[in-house]
Amino acid sequence: MIRFENVTKVLGGNAVLDNISFEVGEGETFVIVGLSGAGKSVTLKHMIRLMQADAGNIVIEGEIINDLGRKALRELRAKFGVLFQGAALLQWMTVHENIALPLRELTHTPEDEILRLVDEKLELLGLADAGAKYPSDISGGMQKRAGLARAIIMSPKIILYDEPTSGLDPVTSRRIDDLIVNMRKKLGITSVVVTHDLHSALSIGSRIMMLHHGKIVENATPEGFIRSKDATVQSFLESQYITRKGKWEEFSHE
Ligand SMILES: Nc1ncnc2c1ncn2[C@@H]1O[C@H](COP(=O)(O)OP(=O)(O)OP(=O)(O)O)[C@@H](O)[C@H]1O
């Protein structure tokens, strides 16, 4: 579904992505971890051509996206729902209006259908009572969920999440994890999640890839990741109090 083939990106004189190749299969929840500056967000940005590779190919659903024209690029981006850092809700619109916005701006969907679709998403994300409220009147966790509702309103095939649980308390973070898992279970959506939170990664990921200085140091199932012999992965695990002897089942949602 998403394939990076020998992708290199140089920014400020550094190879932020250094000849990386990986693949995300349909219906996966693919998690990218790594220290600050490892190239995680840059990787996400390449998937929707917010950044362009200097070398190598990025293939989405069998199509190389490196040189797409404007129309094809619009079609490409319509496949994606994006939840980037900060839910980026418009403060002067209600939650309901925020979620409806992509449909109103980008489609000719009739108004009664828009209302129905937004109500359906509010229900799905446990926000049924929050539609009429403004973003400043709801909690951070609710804002993330509202951002997620907006990200899925156009029925995307793929959702990109950049740090979906940052700034949230542990309980709310686990609720967001549950929602990410549900996106796959209920809607069959493929997800790519960038996170610092290894507990979250181990809990929701079908695969976990670790980037370090622009290179892939591990790409494995959660079980394989926790048992990785790579020294960088090991110290990353230890920094979050997870040891190789830990049982990954403790984290699993299944
Ligand atoms: N537009 C840009 N111009 C120059 N350098 C950039 C640009 N975007 C990112 N970088 C650099 O690329 C590197 C990787 O950035 P990226 O945002 O992907 O890191 P990250 O792994 O997501 O980190 P974090 O966890 O802190 O968000 C960093 O060193 C960053 O300074």
From TrEMBL:
The keyword Nucleotide-binding applies. InterPro entries: AAA+_ATPase (IPR003593), ABC_transporter-like_ATP-bd (IPR003439), ABC_transporter-like_CS (IPR017871), P-loop_NTPase (IPR027417). It comes from the Bacteria. PROSITE patterns: ABC_TRANSPORTER_1 (PS00211), ABC_TRANSPORTER_2 (PS50893). Keywords: ATP-binding, Nucleotide-binding, Transport. GO terms for molecular function: ATP binding; ATP hydrolysis activity. Residues 2-238 form the ABC transporter domain. This is Putative ribonucleotide transport ATP-binding protein mkl.
